Amino acid sequence: MSLTHYLVLAAILFTIGAVGVLVRRNAIVVFMCVELMLNSVNLTLVTFARASGTLDGQVMAFFVMVVAAAEVVVGLAIIMSLFRTRRSASVDDANLLKY
Amino acid sequence: MDTAPADGLITSAWLLIALPLAGAAVLLLGGRRTDRWGHLLGTGTVVAAFVLGLLCTLQLDGRRLDVDLFTFVATGSLDVQAGLLFDPLSAVFVLLITGVGALIHVYSIGYMAHDPRRRRFFAYLNLFVAAMLLLVLGDNFVALYVGWEGVGLASYLLIAFWHERPSAATAAKKAFIMNRVGDVGLALAIFLMFAQLGTVSYDGVFGAVGTLAGGTVTAIGLLLLLGACGKSGQFPLQAWLPDAMEGPTPVSALIHAATMVTAGVYLIARCAPVYDATPTARAAVLAVGAITLMIGAIAGCAQDDIKKVLAYSTVSQIGYMFLAVGLGPVGYVAGLAHLLTHGFFKAGLFLGAGSVMHAMDDDVDMRRFGGLASRMKVTFVTFGLGYLALIGFPFLSGFYTKDAIIEAAFDRGDGWGYLLGGIAILAAGLTAFYMTRLMLMTFFGRPRWEPGVHPHESPSVMTAPMVLLAVGSVLAGFLLVVAFPLEEWLTPVFGEPEAAEHVVAPLVVSILVTVVMALGVLTAWLFVGRREVPVTAPVRVSPVTRAARRALYADAVNESLFMRPGQWLTRALVFVDNRGVDGAVNGLAATLGGSSSRLGRTQTGFVRSYALSMLGGAVVVAGALLAVTAG
Asked: What end-to-end distance do the CA atoms of chain B give, in Å?
């Protein structure tokens, strides 16, 4: 399998994630789509690391994973408290912060 | 013109100023505790100052003595020593101020007896006396200026003494503002002296006047004249003085007749070396004097307010003094002699007018007086003597001093001399006219009193000063001109009197003046004494009378030339400020506020639209990067 296949797969995954973030209302799903985008980027990083034979991309991928794990903790906590107060996990309902 | 350090009693000349000043301080700071004896303290300090001034004068012996006090200002090249100059000129002023001042303080005890703020009145009077003494005793222009402003302040406070009356408050403001115009002239003159000569002491300035360029000396002379005009109520700044009669009558007598308004004459006489060096400024002094003495005399003929007649008379008489000092060395002594005799008889006349007002329930309209001669004998006799002295009745004081001025005018010898002398004689006739009119309307004829008015003679605390001033009015001219000539007394200041070459024989002048005076009296009798005086002023009168009633439209000119344009300027500036400056600031704020609230509309609160804009932004950034790297 050539480099192109990996990159195309990553692009598809990223697109799915981006579209999901934009169109889905459920905060959990939006969150998972964000994770999908992060992982598609991880795939790209690892692909290029392998292609160039250096470790830089893989190290970057680990950093992304660590940050994503931390982000999951905070994000899920926010979604939990949001759900507790509003009985809904829809991102459209959480619209207090506006003009 | 050499000064020597003071010795003997004169070293304590500073007490002359300190005594009344301390009186004012005690009365103002002591508050109500001093109410019971405040007037006695106020009178006592001035009497003490008079006694001290008299003792100092007796020791003077024709010297010019300098009393060094302390360093007032020492910055860079400006070095002002606070010091007093006690010379024959300041000595006569000290005696006039403290002497007449003491009499008027005594009179005020009676006049202000029922005023709840009598203590405050005496405090202001003491403040005035202190400032006036500083004005005439200072040995430099800065001290003179401090005194000059001090008397201006005291004058303002005293004109507005009954400040609950709007007319009094307005008159005080008017006096203060018109004085300020003159004071700017005086201040500029002092600045000019310092800039050109580096000194402000009399000796320094007068000693170096010869080294200045002609234009500079003329500028100094004209600026000093402007200051003198403001303080002395001379053309073109004469309009405040008649309005100042809103103050209590003792104030009119002391400040606006006898002393403060003559400060301008003092200034010009003191600055004789400056005017010796500039014929232009001296001619301006002459012109001011001649114009003012006519304006005052004409306006005085048509007033119905007894104090206003006396006020215009003061304006006119000070015009005589300006005319005299404007004539140069021949006129200084004549002008100062008239100043002194005028101080006596005009103060006496004002005190008499105050006594009349006291009897008439503070009415001032002469059309409602009449027939008071029999009710108020002392006032009538003292007022009558002052009247005779003022119109120049032979051998009373005005006769000697006014004639001396008119003679000095003729002695110029040229056409101008005849013109000035003619104006002065004509004004003497007008003086006789308006004063006779005042006498006839007040003391003679049928009583035209308001119902409920019961005229009575004033208490002796008021009549005693009037009697003393009347004696002064009768004798002062003889004493100052014949018995103890002022000319010899003032020789150390103005130099040896020149042997005058009389163009017109003095006897001819005296006869001419007396005849014109008699004509004035006769005309007044024909117009006023022979006929019934209407209680309300006639409306259908000649244009001349109408102009004279309005003081030759001095107020109208001031208002249309200065007040109205000033108001227009203010209004235009307010408009520019509201519409222009405020408009720009408010418009900018509104624009920014509106656009920011419109921008705020994009913050919808929908997370997904934020996400879309983030994506869009990221795409744009990525596209831009690609375009840059590819390009």
From this structure: 97
Q: Spell out which residues of chain B touch residue A18, defining contact as CB-CB under 8 Å.
A: 615
Say whether A98 and B597 touch across the interface (CB within 8 A): no
For A18, the closest chain B residue by CA position comes to B615
Question: What is the four-CA torsion angle of B468, B472, B474, B476, rounded to 10 degrees?
Answer: 170
Q: What percent of chain B has pLDDT over 70?
A: 99
The count of other CB atoms within 10 Å of the CB of residue B176 is 18
B349 and B494 both lie in a single domain: yes
Q: Write the residue in A21, A94, A95 that is nearest to B611 by C-beta.
A: A21
Whether B318 is covered by a domain: the verdict is yes
| CB nearest to A91's CB, from B597, B603, B608 | B608
Residue B499 confidence (pLDDT): 66
Of B600, B607, B611, the CB nearest to A99: B600
DSSP-assigned states of every residue in A46-88: HHHHHHHT-SHHHHHHHHHHHHHHHHHHHHHHHHHHHHHHHS-
Q: What is the pTM of this model?
A: 0.80
Regarding whether B401 and B381 lie in a shared domain, the answer is yes
- Of B394, B234, B404, the C-alpha closest to B330 is B404
Contact B391, B517 (CB under 8 A): yes
Task: Please list the pLDDT of chain A residue by residue as tens digits (99 residues).
Answer: 788 999 999 999 999 999 999 999 899 999 999 999 999 999 999 999 999 999 999 999 999 999 999 999 999 999 999 899 888 888 888 887 777
CA nearest to A19 within chain B: B612
Of A22, A25, A98, nearest to B604 by CB-CB distance is A98
Confidence of residue B83 (pLDDT cuts 50, 70, 90): confident
Q: What domain range is B626 assigned to?
A: 605-631
Q: Are B265 and B336 in contact (CB under 8 A)?
A: yes
B619 CB within 8 Å of a chain A CB: no
What's the pLDDT score for residue B575? 93
Tell me: pLDDT of B323 over 80. Answer: yes
Report yes or no: A29 at the B interface, CB cutoff 8 Å: no
Chain A residues in contact with B607 by the CB 8 A cut-off are: 30, 91-92, 94-95
Rounded mean pLDDT of B215-226?
92
Domain A3-86, CATH: 1.10.287.3510
